[in-house]
Batch of 3 targets.
Target 1
Amino acid sequence: MTSKSKRFYYIGLALTIFSILFGNQIATMHNRENDSSPPASAPAAGVQLQPQIAKGANSSLAVWADRRVVLGRYVPDDNAGIGSNTDIYAARYDAQGNLIDSAPIIVAEAIYEQRFPHVAWNGQNWLVVWVTQRKTNQFNTDILGVRVAPDGTVLDSTPIPIYSTPESVGDPSYVSVASDGVNWTIVFGQATFNSSIAGVRVAPDGSLIDTTPKVLFQDTDFTAPAQANIAYANNQFLLVWEITLGSDHAIRARRLSNNLDPIGSPFAVNLFSPSSGTTARVASDGTNFLVTWREDRFAYNEMFAARVSAAGQVLDRDSRLAASAGRENRRRRYSLVANRPL
């Protein structure tokens, strides 16, 4: 196994199984408000969930949704000013996986809910994006973002307004971000009568390049596209998402230019039959892509993967088992598979 293929494999695998392998480690960080908090090996207060991670120049930034400020009490959504529910925190890790920020970085701590964080590196800084309930109307949600410097400094005191949901459009329930090495691209769902996946770009200085979202996929067959995820390689983006086909699901993909113009038509990724995939994720090694998804092909929720070339060709028609989360024998099988190349 070459060093390049090993890097490719683990980058892609990390996106889908990070929460399984490292979710509990996020709970080991210090409480920012209390210098006498337990050591980093003790759990943090509250609940930590929805982790994501992106590699930078010499370190990686992990982000997650955090409920430590609630501390188990109910915060009614209709009581503006009472405080925040779920917030967005972050922490850096060095190249050896050691925690740099014992006290987590506060990315967003506002009233109501901030959820579904995602992060990407553009060669200079990270961009962290998330979905938030609108401060002036908790029944609407928006997408906000901030840049985080390599030293952990949050560069935007006021979050970047990436997407403000119109009253006539359903709220986005997910968000993903990738970078072409200069700008960032953020993708999300628009729940109109025919659901669509849209995207906008953010410049290195934090300004919006696309003030009007570009439609990247428009559904005309009521397939309910969801869970869009995006990665960059070889001068193009690969957008992946799940669709509903009757009682089953499938994984679709589409290549996009740096300007978010479509390259060809959408195509199927999970080619094995029968296959019903959900929760698509994608990563790259800088040349090709690795798409992963979840399905219960063997009666348990397991993770499968297929490589996709820069030309849009699915290289693993039968897909490959990437991880199993079933019974103990399934966990042993996962350990074996995760330590060899696809």
Target 2
Amino acid sequence: MKIREQNINEHGDIREYEHFEDGTWDGEYKEYYNDNTLKLVGIYKNNRQEGIFKEYNRNNELITESFYFEGVKKNEVRYDYYLNGTKKEKRIEEGGKFKEKENYYETGELEYRIDQFKSENFSKDGYVIIRVTFSKDPKKSKIEYPHLLKSIKNIDFKEDAIKLLCSNINEVEEVTTYVKKIIDKYNFNNLKVKSDTVNKLLLWIYSK
């Protein structure tokens, strides 16, 4: 026979759980903040956590999802939020190791994604601005600008705008040359230009 019990843990939170008469936990488990807002919910089987456990903050926003098998945590997803309640970050860990992370604009659109194989920056319209593919051999890693060619034909690159993004005249000349090469040759792999300058330029492009 199962017994449903409620008490207060060492942190002052209210907890509800089901157990057999011998004390073995088995069934739904819940924790509440001291204002009765749901904090944690999951399932126990034979005294061990099983399946998905969800944890919430006091604003009722999901902050962690943990998957357990026979009491062992297999993976975890963590969330962070802007003050307006929009999701800011999602981070996935598997076996205690990083697997994937996503960041979002305050308006809700995906801004950045990174995993073990690549990272991507997105515009608010969903276009990939920059893609970096990782490799154990640094020479095989590469940077791509997938949507740049579509936009570049419709943009007037004024020298004074480029100057605002660059720290000195040498970089201005370098970026100007870089842009011309893209238009003329569509060749990304052989271009040598400081990545931070190019990234600033691309962000400027997509803000227009």
Target 3
Amino acid sequence: MQYLRPLLVMLLLLPTIAVAETNTVTSTVTGTTTVDRTPSTASAPSVAINNQDVCTTATSSAIQTQILGVATGTTVTDDNCERLKLARSLYGMGMKVAAVSMLCQDERVFDAMEMAGTPCPIDGKIGEAAQREWDRQVAIAEEEKEENEVVNEENNVDNGFVALLVLLLFL
């Protein structure tokens, strides 16, 4: 057993010793390395909104080329969210008509109230009085629209006449 161990070690090492070769590589390199491009550095700014009870979201973006980098950030306000919070606050203070008026600023709510037969409050009027006032406002708006169309037609005739005179001047 004592002779077996050294013999076993020699058998394992013998193939590696017999196959071993000597390779020598010699090379000389001279030169300089020039870094002609710096790494891109644009990073989008973080826009933090710390309060969850705010109707604002943040967006940011950045772009970098080899020459120029641009980064920007902004906040976007959700008007409908603000409207709901304001209406909830007004209702909580007992100002129910003001809360409904706040919600009526949304066209969808305004249309829904009209379809339900309960018009939105206007000038402190509610119910049938509000409906009469809204009808009067619509009539006034239609009259103004008709007047504007007449004025636009007159302006178009005047503009056409001026254009004709300018054309004749160039001939």
